[in-house]
Amino acid sequence: MSALLQNGTETGTIMTKEMLLLRSKKALRRIRISLKWILFAVISGALIGSAGTFFYLCLSFVNLVRSKNPWLIWLLPVAGLLIVGAYQLLRDEDDPGTNLVLSAIHSGDRLPVRMAPLIFFSTLVTHLFGGSAGREGAALQLGGSIGNGLGTLFRFEEKDRNIMIMCGMSAAFSALFGTPMAAAIFAMEVVSVGVFYYAALLPCVIAALVAQAVALSFGVGPERFLLASVPSFTLRTALMTSLLAVLCALISILFCIVLHQAEHLYRRFLKNPYLRIFAGGCLVLLLTLLVGDHRYNGAGISIIEACMEGEVLPEAFLVKMIFTALTIGAGYKGGEIVPSFAVGASAGCLFGSLTGFSPQLSTAIGMGAVFCGVTNCPLTALLISFEMFGYEGMPYFLLAVAFSNLLSGYFGLYHSQKIIYSKYRMNYINRKAE
Predict the structure, then answer these.
(1) Residue 372 and which of 75, 115, 411, 419 are 20 to 30 A apart at CA?
(2) 253: Cβ contacts below 8 Å, ≥ 6 apart
(3) 192, β-bridge pairs
(4) pLDDT per residue over 143-167, tens digit each?
(5) Nearest-angstrom CA–CA distance, 235 and 241
C-alpha cells in the first residue's frame, strides 16, 4: 500500500514538473511574442509616423499654395493626366486604393510597396489643383504598404504581415489626425465588421502612440474642435439626437451610393482612364465656377470650421458630396473620410439651426454619425468623437453612433470591407459592404 502511495506521489511530482515546464515554455513564448511586437510596433510607429508627418506637412504646403493661387483649379484636368500617367508608369493602372489594403488583410491579396510613393504623389497633386478629396485614404494606403513592406523584409508569415499592415494603418492615421485611440481601433475594426483582431491591439496601440509622438515633435498638432457648451442630457435632447442620427444614417447611405455610382458611370461611359480623369477634372472645375468659390474643393476642413461657428449653407452637405464623388470617381486620389466629416458637419449644423438644438453640438454629432455610417466602425466613430470634441458630449455621441450604425445598413465606402456578422441579429452573414 505504501509503495503504491509512493509511486503515485512520484508520478504526481513528475506530472507537476512537466506541467510547470510546459507553462513556463508557454509564458516565455508569450513574452517573446510580446517583445517582438513591441519592437516592430515602435519601428513602424517611428518610420511610418515620420512618413505620415512629412506627408501632412506637404499637404499643408500644397493647400496653402492653392489657397493663395486659386487659378490652379484651371489645371486640375491636366493634373489628372499626371496621376494616371504615374500609375501606368509603375504598372498599376487599375489601382483599387484602400480596398486593396483591406483585401490584403482578409484575403491575402498582394500589397505592393510602390503604392506608398504613388498615393503620396497623386494625393498631393489632387489637393494642389483643387480636387475634393481627403487625406486618410492616402494615410491608410501609405501606412499599409510600408507596414507590409516591413513584414516582407523581415520575412514574417502572412498572418503576422497582416498585423504589420494594421500597425502601418494605425501609425499613418494617428500621425495625420492626432487621434491615437481612434487610429489604433480603426485599423482593426474596418477590415471585417463584427470581428475584432485582438492580436493586433498592442502593436496598433504602440504604433499609433509612437506615430503621434513623432508628429508632435515636428509641430503637427491633433485635430481639435472643442465644444463651447454642452446642454444637459434630457429626454428632449435624447430624442433630438436620435432624430439627427437617423437623418445622418440616411445621408451616409446616400453618400456611399453617390460615390459608387459616380465611379460606375465614369467607367461605363469613359473607358480610357486618361479621358475619364480629364473629364472629371473638367466637371469639378465647372462646378467650382458655378458655386463661385473654393469652399468645396480640398478636404473640407473649412466647411467644418464654419459649421462649428454655426455658419452653414442649406445645400452644403449635398454639394460637398457631389464634388467628392466627381473627384474620387474620376480617378483622383485622396480619401473620403474627411469629406464625410464635412458632409456630416454641414448636415448636423443645418439640423441644429432649423430646430434650435445647439448647432455646434449638432455639428459634432453629425460628423461622428456620418463617419460611423460610411465606415461601419462604431467604436472608432465614438473614440474619434471623444478625441476631436472632448468627453462632455459622451451621451450624445454614444446614442448617435448606435443609431447610425444600426440604420446605415451594409453600405460602406470600401467594397472590400467584409460584414462578418449581421447588425440586426446574431447571425454569421460574411458579405461585402454595398
Answers:
(1) 115
(2) 373, 408, 409, 411
(3) 418
(4) 888 888 888 888 888 888 889 989 9
(5) 10
